[in-house]
Design brief:
Elements (H helix, E strand, L loop, with lengths): L1 H21 L6 H15 L1 H10 E2 L2 E2 L5 H16 L1
Antiparallel strand pairs: 1-2
Length: about 80
């Protein structure tokens, strides 16, 4: 589930970066919509619960692979940025 959400968020972030680059980093309707979509994905209740289960004291739980741990760190970073 986390991989799916983060894949979608990465896709949205890529679109946001392209939109900001195309418009000279000025705020426009598309960038606002993309930022809102990222925020909705990262702050919905299921994502909060998922991060809660995958972290203990702000660190990924034991038993995760290196790739999974990096994904949890990235998810937390994106969540905190929202």
């Amino acid at each position: 589930k986390l991989e799916k959400v983060m894949s979608t968020v990465t896709e949205l972030q890529t679109q946001l970066d392209a939109a900001m680059e195309a418009h000279g980093s000025s705020v426009n309707e598309q960038s606002i919509e993309l930022k809102a979509a990222i925020k909705r994905k990262m702050t919905n209740k299921s994502m909060v619960e998922l991060l809660g289960r995958l972290e203990i004291n702000g660190q990924p739980v034991w038993g995760l692979s290196t790739r999974e741990r990096e994904l949890v760190y990235l998810a937390r970073e994106k969540f905190n940025a929202c």
